[in-house]
Design goal:
Blueprint lengths: L4 H8 L11 E5 L2 E5 H13 L10 E4 L9 H17 L2 E3 L6 H7 L8 E4 L13 E4 L2 H10 L1 E5 L3 E7 L8 H12 L8 E5 L1 H4 L3 H8 L9 E4 L3 H11 L16 E6 L6 E3 L7 E3 L10 E4 L1 H4 L2 H11 L9 E4 L4 H9 L2 H8 L2 E2 L20 E4 L13 E4 L2 H10 L38 E8 L7 H4 L27 H4 L5 E3 L12 H4 L8 E4 L4 H9 L4 E3 L13 E5 L4 E4 L4 E4 L5 H9 L5
Parallel strand pairs: 2-3, 2-5, 3-4, 5-6, 8-9, 8-11, 9-10, 14-15, 14-17, 15-16, 17-18, 19-20, 20-21, 21-22
Antiparallel strand pairs: 1-7, 12-13, 19-23, 23-24, 24-25
Helix pairs in contact: 2-3, 2-5, 6-8, 11-13, 11-14
């Protein structure tokens, strides 16, 4: 039996002839990178644990989240990274370079069959060139910097076969929004997903990047494309090397093979709060907007800017609407300048910023305010992700058309006169909460349960990105769940010894370690969930913070604040209050080992 694409790549980097789903292997990483907001914590882990670099030539910093250093804490963190880089011979892609994952592709560091890890949860964007990329927390990255490799559990693979012809008005962003509508945020959770079919083979690199960049929002480990001849030639040119095409074997074994008729795809928009909550753009037409954003790792490519310019040329952004445009890399910025796109954007009244992540991470071009409605080409619209307002996700052409109209619309339905801006009401800001001391945990724990009946609780809900500059774990507890509706007072009301029990896909979204660490000072003993986001699961295991999964809690008769007992070794979960027990999933050997050692560094 042959191997899938992910299995081929991981086997090639772990000195294994054959690997199977579920195997845990040490994977050699061709690239190990850290961004500006995570980089300072990586440095802290390296210094505090006395770790040395395995290979400085394969180690990088990328300043893309807030390249302007517009926030003082970001500026300090960037300088910490610069000092460390100077002392250890590490290359920095500084504030003039652009988004790190895109740079890895354009610098020829990521290509068919290669491996990379960064502190960016969208590192799996490298699947666009058939490479394995993973976002990881700062502890994971520090370990990779020191060891040159990282342990990884081989995922199961799903193959998507696309049949038919892509409609002319459907963009790459629409493709992934249609897939989100079909699969949601957790159907593909933990899978490596391969894309196949004639319609896929014709996709450009820019289009593949757009689709691959939203694999994290689908819960997938990675969305993988086998490079076509054009992309292989590009990678060889950028790397300066003759490269071997790595692809799945003809007799590879997939968990599922799913046929999809791309002919039925339509332009779609994600409604505020969840990328997977997508609807036909017609369902939200004429929704008044206050601002628009074109950019991010999903849609900051030259093809995206050309699509926007084709609509904006000779037109003006609607009065009262702010349009921000941010290229993904400085190379794209320069190309836009040379092609005259920059002048088109300026004439239309748009703000054009230096290359970077920008609006997606509420970075260099600012945030949106309370009551503000934004339409964005970003990959996430979690509550609070770009500020206090609401965010719709759409393609560059829909965003550009909407910016001109003053409301959500399509390029073929732009009005002669834009809708006039109306002010929004402000909402009260919730107070910060207090921190609580933590304590050690045994293999069997018992405590009061917080039963939160929600799927897809993402890392912005657990620990919002506005607190990412904090490096002291003791300060993090006060912000736990303060962005989860209905649980804003969690940190104030939680008691040492409490256990959190949730549903599917807990910890989806960002790679931030703080979403794990924030529970420690509160004394929370563990988080139990039906499933976890892949990066969150790694972060918790490596930090020795207990997490455990279950297949179903039916029969536990659980209610909020019941007392439960959890056995990490056997997987048993007992409702002590009701005297009922179910079987959960015990710690793996690796998790128990790291847990008993007190963390990956011990």
């Amino acid at each position: 039996m042959g191997m899938t694409l992910i299995e081929k790549i991981l086997a090639n980097h772990s000195n294994k002839d054959v690997i199977d789903p579920g195997d845990i292997v040490d994977v050699y990483m061709d690239v190990r990178a850290a961004r500006d907001f995570g980089g300072a914590n990586v440095v802290k882990n390296m210094v505090d644990n006395g770790l040395s670099l395995d290979d400085p030539t394969k180690t990088f910093f990328t300043f893309d989240c807030n390249p302007t250093g517009s926030d003082q804490k970001y500026a300090v963190n960037q300088q910490i990274c610069r000092d460390y880089a100077r002392n250890h011979g590490i290359k920095i892609y500084d504030i003039d370079a652009g988004i790190g994952t895109h740079l890895l592709i354009h610098e020829g560091l990521a290509y068919s069959g290669s491996t990379a890890v960064t502190t960016d949860s969208h590192a799996n964007i490298l699947g666009a060139v058939g490479a394995f990329g993973q976002g990881m927390g700062d502890q994971d990255i520090a370990a990779a910097w020191s060891n040159g490799k990282s342990w990884f559990k081989v995922p199961k693979s799903i193959k998507l076969n696309f049949n038919g012809v892509k409609p002319a008005n459907v963009t790459a962003k629409d493709i992934v929004l249609n897939l989100l509508n079909k699969f949601g945020a957790n159907t593909l959770l933990g899978y490596a997903v391969e894309f196949h079919g004639n319609a896929i083979d014709k996709l450009t690199l820019d289009e593949r990047i757009t689709i691959a960049s939203m694999g994290t929002e689908m819960g997938a480990i990675i969305l993988l494309f086998t490079p076509n001849n054009e992309i292989m030639k590009f990678s060889e040119q950028q790397s300066g090397n003759t490269l071997e095409l790595v692809k799945a074997d003809e007799d590879a074994n997939y968990e599922q093979v799913i046929d999809i008729d791309i002919t039925g795809f339509v332009p779609r928009v994600s409604r505020p709060g969840a990328p997977h909550d997508t609807v036909d753009v017609g369902d939200v037409k004429k929704t008044k907007i206050d601002s628009a954003f074109i950019g991010s790792c999903t849609n900051g490519r030259i093809e995206d800017l050309r699509a926007a310019a084709a609509i904006l040329e000779g037109r003006q952004v609607a009065p009262g609407v702010v349009l921000k445009i941010v290229p993904s890399t400085d190379e794209v910025w320069s190309q836009a300048l040379n092609e005259g796109l920059v002048q088109i954007f300026k004439n239309a009244g748009a703000l054009l910023s230096n290359a970077g992540c920008a609006g997606c991470a509420a970075g260099q071009v600012g945030q949106n305010g309370q009551g503000e409605i934004t339409i964005s080409t970003g990959n996430r619209n979690f509550p609070g992700k770009q500020g206090k307002g609401e965010v719709y996700l759409a393609s560059p052409s829909v965003v550009a058309a909407s910016a001109v109209a003053g409301y959500i619309t399509t390029p073929d339905d732009i009005p002669e006169e834009p809708m006039i801006f109306m002010p929004k009401e402000e909402k009260a800001v919730k107070p910060k909460t207090e921190k609580v001391e933590t304590k050690e945990r045994p293999k069997i724990i018992e405590g009061r349960v917080w039963y939160i009946k929600e799927d897809n609780i993402d890392t912005d809900m657990i620990y919002h990105n506005r607190y990412l500059a904090i490096t002291d774990t003791n300060e993090m507890g006060q912000y736990a769940f303060d962005n989860l509706e209905g649980y804003e007072n969690f940190a104030k009301e939680a008691q040492p010894g409490d256990i959190v029990l949730v549903q599917k896909n807990f910890g989806s979204g960002s790679s931030r370690q703080q979403a794990v660490d924030c529970f420690i000072p509160l004394g929370v003993q563990a988080v139990v969930a039906e499933s976890f986001g892949a990066i969150y699961e790694r972060n918790a295991i490596n930090a020795a913070f207990p997490i455990m999964s279950y297949d179903s809690i039916e029969g536990l008769d659980l209610e909020h604040f019941d007392t439960i007992k959890v056995n990490f070794e056997t997987g048993e979960i007992t409702n002590v209050t009701k005297g009922k027990t179910i079987q959960g999933n015990p710690f793996s050997e690796v998790q128990m080992d790291i847990y008993q050692r007190g963390g990956i560094f011990n």
